[in-house]
Amino acid sequence: MKILLVSNMYPSEEFPSFGVFVKNTEAILTDEGFIVDKAVVTKSIKKSQKIAAYLGHYANVLRKGLTGNYDAIYVHYAAHNAFPLLLLKKLKPSVKIMTNVHGSDVVPEVASQEKFQPYVKKLLQQSTMIITPSHYYKELVHEKYAVTTPIEIFPSGGVNSAVFYPNPGARQRQLEQLALDSTMRYFGYVGRMDVGKGWDHLLKGFSAFLEQNPAEKSKTRLIMVGSGKDDDAFFQMRSDLGLDDIVVHFPLMKHQDLAAIYNIIELFIFPTTRKGESLGLVGLEAMACGTPILASRIGGILDYVQDGANSWLFTAGEWEDLVKQLELYNQLTMEEKQQIAKAAYETAQNYDQRKIQSKLSAIFHKLELTK
């Protein structure tokens, strides 16, 4: 079976985490014996570069879609790829489109993304099959678009256990490489500094936690990994709250370095407020390293977090509840923390890339039956 993978997000050497799950699904399909060709875009910084990249991308999608003998067009991110695919479908009605929807595809995060919604709906209606990362997102698609197109669930490429795994023996070396104080305990965050990611709620909550528990100031640090449009606001808030020496920031990291962060921290905090949080793969990656998470009670996170059993939840957008949950976490015994960490690890194994890759293969083989 020959597949054309279409995406406006694909990792590059400069931005290795940008759309890495798209590359993961490509690797899965290749491992399962599918022939995969690509029409993808890597990240650009300058607006002029983005415009040129998208124009070239759209032309490439049309050229390959019209001339290539593909059994399916597999698209990640409906919003930014709908235009060329709808035109392709008009020019070549026999083409079969598999649309994998994520995040802002269905729940726009900013007003400028709303304009894509009519095209997203039309693309989903004209797709042969829709793939969503979670049960939550499947229901969201049904509720919003009332499509009759079959919907399958596949968790965004899953977790690469060759990268994300418990590695306690390397912790001291990792601390030294990152110039971190080995006498401190660390909480962590990984995500863009962008709207809806909750980085601001985390800073406010962590600051209040320290104020209410003064002894923690000398022994607890927060590592925040990521960059985005809100970088300036992040640094300003960190300074205003007096956290410059307490909140350690790293820019975007490669997956191997993220795995080191997950192994260094004892608790991963996932403060997203996005209704469109279609799965939350970073949470699963942390859990795969044996690190439990404290996450917002929202979105696809609810597919895998059982509050108090394999991790913990707090009310999305309410930093006061985050403080309350951090204090409850602090009261747990070491044995209780280890029990939750073990359950978190076991849960993440259900999303292991090697275990779930046959699910994606099965979805594409269903497509063959529609011929």
TrEMBL record:
Pfam families: Glyco_transf_4, Glycos_transf_1. Keywords: Transferase. Residues 39-157 form the Glycosyltransferase subfamily 4-like N-terminal domain. GO terms for molecular function: transferase activity. Residues 172-346 form the Glycosyl transferase family domain. SUPFAM superfamilies: UDP-Glycosyltransferase/glycogen phosphorylase. This is Glycosyl transferase family 1.
